[in-house]
Amino acid sequence: MELLTPGTGLIIWQLIIFVGLFFLLSKLAWKPIISSLKEREVSIQDALSTAEKARLEIAALKSDNEKLLKAAREERDRILHEAREASNRMKEEAQADAKKAADKIVDDARAAINVEKQAALREVKEQVALFSLEVAEKLLKKSLADDKAQKELVANYVKDIKVN
């Protein structure tokens, strides 16, 4: 039973060693341990506050990015709308120019046709006049083939000259 009940001398020595170790640790070890724990607590708190600030900044940046993306999309849509309108205007202007050019070509062709028509009518009139003269000449030759008809024609001309 000696193992279960310690002796008084052993208890006293253990108490002396414990108290000495307690004072030694309180003077030398506990202050640095407590100060290092406080430093660690402060650094952990700083890290947490920095992480919270970073999270808030990221949220703000995300919000800004969303705003920028929205603005960029709106700008893109506006530019595309303006480009479509410009394209439509250019197409309409090109169609109008093409219509004007086609109308000018048609008008020029009509003018050329009228000029050719007038020239053809002049030529037909000249041909008709020539044919009429040839017919009249042949008729006169036929009717003035004898001397009596020639003398009557000359007499008629002389009367007409005197009357005028």
TrEMBL record:
The gene is atpF. Signal peptide: none annotated. Keywords: ATP synthesis, Cell membrane, CF(0), Coiled coil, Hydrogen ion transport, Ion transport, Membrane, Transmembrane, Transmembrane helix, Transport. It is found in: Cell membrane; Endomembrane system. Component of the F(0) channel, it forms part of the peripheral stalk, linking F(1) to F(0). The b'-subunit is a diverged and duplicated form of b found in plants and photosynthetic bacteria. It is a single-pass membrane protein. This is ATP synthase subunit b. Belongs to the ATPase B chain family. Residues 44-104 form a coiled coil. It comes from the Bacteria. F-type ATPases have 2 components, F(1) - the catalytic core - and F(0) - the membrane proton channel. F(1) has five subunits: alpha(3), beta(3), gamma(1), delta(1), epsilon(1). F(0) has four main subunits: a(1), b(2) and c(10-14). The alpha and beta chains form an alternating ring which encloses part of the gamma chain. F(1) is attached to F(0) by a central stalk formed by the gamma and epsilon chains, while a peripheral stalk is formed by the delta and b chains. One of its GO terms (cellular component) is proton-transporting ATP synthase complex. One of its GO terms (molecular function) is proton-transporting ATPase activity, rotational mechanism. CDD domains: ATP-synt_Fo_b. The chain crosses the membrane at residues 12-30.
